[in-house]
Write a structure and sequence with these properties.
alpha/beta; 38% helix; 2-enoyl-CoA Hydratase, Chain A, domain 1; 8-stranded mixed beta sheet; globular
Length: 659
C-alpha cells in the first residue's frame, strides 16, 4: 500500500541545536529546502510530487485574497459511543487539536474564487487522518444547505482516510446525511465541484467525494474505497501499477480531470464560470419542521436522532415516528439551554464475549437470507437481473414481490450455503453491478408507487480491484443518494452483518430494524482491531468498543427496533422469523403510507439522517501575543507539517480499510 507517512512531521534538532530545514522527496529522493517547497505550493520542482497541504493553506491557495469567512469554527465532536482503544477518543481528539490548531478535520465557510462566491468545505488530513465524524458531516451538510438557500456553487476539497471509527455508526450515518443535503442542492439546480486530493478513501469517496458535477483530482492522489492491502488480499497477488491513483480513476471514467496544484485555481475559476445556472424559479421547499432551540437550516431540521422502543410480542417496535422522535430530542436540547447535538445516554459497554457472540451468530452460515425469507413467505416474486450496463451480481437479489396480497419491491443481499454458491454470490459482498441493479429496482418502485423492503446481511462491499475499476465508491454513493430522495416508503431490516458503507448502500430507510443478533458497524471488528488495536486478534475488544450490537444501535437511534430470533435455526423457525420480519415491515409501511403526502415522507427521511451527530459549540480561546506570533510565522505547526502525531500516522499507514 502506498505510504501515508508524513514527511513534515517533527524531527530531532541537529547537534548544533538548529531544526532540520531539509527533507527528502518521496517521489524522487531529491533533498528539498522546506522554505522553498512552501513557496512552491508544496510541489517538488524535480519530479512534481504533490505533498499534502493543511486545510488553511489550501484555502489560501484557492480563494481570492481576504474573501474567506469561516463558519461554524467552534464545533467540536463529542464522544457518542464512549470509545477507547489505546487511549480514549476525547484524549485522541484533544491531541489532534493541540497539534494542528484546528477543532476538527474540516473547515467550512464562504469565499470568492475569481470573483464568484462559493460555499466551501476543505478537509484537513493532518487532523486524525481527515476522518469524517459528526463535525465534518455537519459542516458538509450545512455547506450544501447554504449553497441551496443562496444559490451558491459548492466546492468540497477532500483529504480523508474515511469515516471516523471512534464515532461508530454515528460516523457511518454522515454518509446519508451529507448525500441527502447534496441531493437537495442538485435538485434545486445547484452545482457541486469535488476536488479530490491525496488521500481520499473509504466513506469519504463513497459519499460526497464521488458525486460532484465535476470531479477533479491532483496528480497521483490516492483515491479508492477499500484499503490497497485488502484489495491485494482478494486476488492473492500484487495490484496493477497505479491502482487507486487519480490517473487510474481518470482512465476508468470516475473523475473529469487531473490538474496540477499550480493550475487548480484557474481551472476552478473557469469551471465555476461555466457551471453558473441561468435564472430559475424559486427553489421548491420541502415541508418544514421547526425545532425549538435549533430551528431550521435550509428548510430542514437539525437535532439528534434518539431511539425509543417497547416490546410488543416478538418485536421491539418504535414508539413514535421519526418526526416525533426528533421533536422529543429537541425538547431535551431546549432543556439544556444550549444549541448543540448531545451524545446519547448509553449504558455501560457489553462484555467482550457478549458483544462477540452477536458477531458470531450474525455470521452463522446457516442463517437465512433474502431468498430464504421470500421462500418462507411464499412470495410471488419476479426477479430483476443485471444493471443494464455491465452484468449481474449474485450478491444482490432484487425484484417485485407480492406477499399477503401486498405488492412491494424487495432488494437484499444474498450469501451462499457452500463454497460453490458463495463464490457465485460473492460471499454476500456486492460489486458495483449489484448496487446499480438495486437502483434499477428503486426507480421501478418509485414509478409503480410501490414500497421498498431491503434486507441486509453483508460484511461489506466487494473489495477487489475489479470493483474499484468499475466504480464501487461511486455506486455506493449513488445508491445512498438515490434512497434519500426516493419518493416511496423504504423499510430496512439488518438480518445479519451490517458491514459499513456496503450495507448502508441499501439501508438508508425511513425505518430501520435489526434482528436480535445482527450487528451494524462503521468498520468490521477485525479491521478496527488491526488499525487501532494493532492486531486483528483484538476483534472482540473492537466489537465491544464500537457498540455494534442491535440493542446498542437502538440506544443510539440508528436502529428503530429489534425483531427477536428463535433459539435455533430450522426450516420451521425460518418461517416464524420471516413472518415476524414481514409483520414488522408491513406495519411500518402502513404508518409511512398514512403520511399526507410525499413531501412529508421525504422531509421526515431527511430529518432522520440530518439529525445524526454528536457535537458541541465550544468557545474559541483568543490567542495571546505569543500564540499570535507563533501563528504568524507558522511556528505552531512546524511548517504545517506536524499536524498528525506519529501514533496516528502509524495507524493510518496500517491501512485505510473499509470505513
Amino acid at each position: 500500500m502506498p505510504s501515508f507517512s508524513n514527511p513534515f512531521k517533527r524531527r530531532k534538532a541537529t547537534p548544533g541545536g538548529e531544526p532540520d530545514l531539509w527533507l527528502r522527496c518521496p517521489g524522487c529522493s531529491e533533498l528539498l529546502f522546506k522554505k522553498s517547497l512552501e513557496k512552491g505550493l508544496r510541489v517538488c520542482t524535480s519530479c512534481g510530487h504533490h505533498f499534502r497541504v493543511p486545510a488553511r493553506e489550501r484555502i489560501a491557495q484557492l480563494v481570492d485574497e481576504g474573501s474567506f469567512a469561516e463558519l461554524d469554527a467552534s464545533l467540536v465532536s463529542l464522544d457518542p459511543i464512549v470509545f477507547t482503544d489505546s487511549k480514549p477518543y476525547p484524549e485522541r481528539a484533544a491531541t489532534a487539536r493541540k497539534l494542528t490548531g484546528e477543532r476538527d478535520a474540516a473547515i467550512r465557510g464562504t469565499a470568492s474564487i475569481g470573483g464568484i462566491e462559493v460555499s466551501l468545505v476543505v478537509m484537513d488530513f493532518f487532523f486524525m487522518g481527515g476522518s469524517m465524524g459528526s463535525v465534518v458531516g455537519e459542516k458538509v451538510a450545512r455547506a450544501a444547505e447554504l449553497a441551496t438557500e443562496r444559490r451558491l456553487p459548492l466546492l468540497i476539497v477532500s483529504a480523508s482516510g474515511g469515516a471516523r471509527m471512534q464515532e461508530g455508526t454515528y460516523a457511518l450515518m454522515q454518509l446519508p446525511k451529507t448525500l441527502a443535503a447534496i441531493a437537495r442542492l442538485k435538485s434545486s439546480g445547484g452545482t457541486f465541484i469535488s476536488l479530490l486530493t491525496d488521500p481520499t478513501t473509504g466513506g469519504t469517496i463513497a459519499s460526497f467525494g464521488a458525486l460532484g458535477d465535476l470531479n477533479v483530482a491532483e496528480p497521483n492522489a490516492l483515491i479508492g474505497f477499500s484499503g490497497a492491502r485488502v484489495s491485494a488480499g482478494t486476488i492473492g497477488d500484487e495490484l496493477p501499477a497505479g491502482f487507486q491513483r487519480s490517473e487510474f480513476l481518470l482512465e476508468t471514467g470516475f473523475i473529469d480531470a487531473i490538474v496540477a496544484r499550480g493550475n487548480l485555481r484557474p481551472w476552478i475559476i473557469r469551471a465555476l464560470s461555466l457551471l453558473q445556472p441561468l435564472p430559475a424559479p424559486a427553489v421548491p421547499l420541502y415541508q418544514q419542521i421547526n425545532i425549538p432551540g435549533v430551528g431550521l437550516i435550509g428548510g430542514v431540521v437539525t437535532g439528534v436522532a434518539q431511539g425509543a422502543g417497547t416490546m410488543i410480542g416478538s418485536v421491539l417496535a418504535p414508539v413514535a415516528s421519526a418526526a416525533t422522535r426528533v421533536a422529543n430530542r429537541a425538547d431535551q436540547i431546549l432543556e439544556n439551554q444550549r444549541d448543540r447535538h448531545l451524545a446519547p445516554e448509553l449504558g455501560p459497554h457489553l462484555e467482550e464475549e457478549e458483544a462477540w457472540s452477536h458477531v458470531r451468530r450474525a455470521r452463522d452460515p446457516e442463517r437465512p437470507r433474502t431468498a430464504e425469507f421470500l421462500e418462507a413467505l411464499n412470495a410471488d416474486f419476479v426477479e430483476l437481473r443485471g444493471d443494464r450496463r455491465a452484468g449481474d451480481d449474485g450478491a444482490i437479489v432484487a425484484g417485485i414481490a407480492r406477499i399477503d396480497g401486498r405488492r412491494i419491491v424487495v432488494v437484499g443481499t444474498q450469501k451462499g450455503r457452500d463454497t460453490e454458491s458463495n463464490i457465485r454470490r460473492g460471499f454476500g459482498m456486492p460489486h458495483p453491478e449489484g448496487y446499480r441493479k438495486a437502483m434499477r429496482a428503486f426507480e421501478l418502485a418509485e414509478r409503480l408507487h410501490l414500497p421498498v423492503l431491503t434486507l441486509v446481511d453483508t460484511p461489506g462491499a466487494h473489495p477487489g480491484p475489479e470493483s474499484e475499476q468499475r466504480g464501487i465508491a461511486e455506486a455506493i454513493a449513488a445508491s445512498i443518494s438515490r434512497m434519500t430522495e426516493l419518493r416511496t416508503p423504504i423499510v430496512t431490516v439488518i438480518t445479519g452483518e451490517g458491514g459499513s458503507g456496503g450495507a448502508l448502500a441499501i439501508a438508508a430507510g425511513d425505518r430501520v430494524y435489526a434482528l436480535e443478533h445482527a450487528y451494524y458497524s462503521v468498520i468490521s471488528p477485525e479491521g478496527c482491531a488491526a488499525i487501532l488495536f494493532r492486531t486483528s486478534e483484538k476483534a472482540p475488544a473492537a466489537a465491544r468498543a464500537l457498540r455494534i450490537t442491535a440493542p446498542e444501535q437502538v440506544a443510539l437511534g440508528v436502529v428503530d427496533g429489534i425483531i427477536l430470533e428463535p433459539e435455533t435455526l430450522s426450516a420451521e423457525s425460518t418461517v416464524t422469523l420471516a413472518r415476524a420480519i414481514w409483520e414488522t415491515a408491513s406495519a411500518a409501511f402502513d404508518e409511512l403510507e398514512s403520511m399526507k403526502d410525499l413531501n412529508e415522507l421525504l422531509t421526515a427521511r431527511y430529518a432522520r439522517y440530518r439529525a445524526f451527530g454528536a457535537f458541541d459549540e465550544a468557545p474559541i480561546k483568543k490567542k495571546g501575543i505569543t500564540g499570535a506570533i507563533r501563528s504568524l510565522f507558522g511556528l505552531d505547526r512546524d511548517l504545517v507539517g506536524a499536524g498528525v502525531g506519529d501514533d496516528w500516522i502509524d495507524e493510518i499507514e496500517r491501512d485505510s480499510a473499509g470505513a
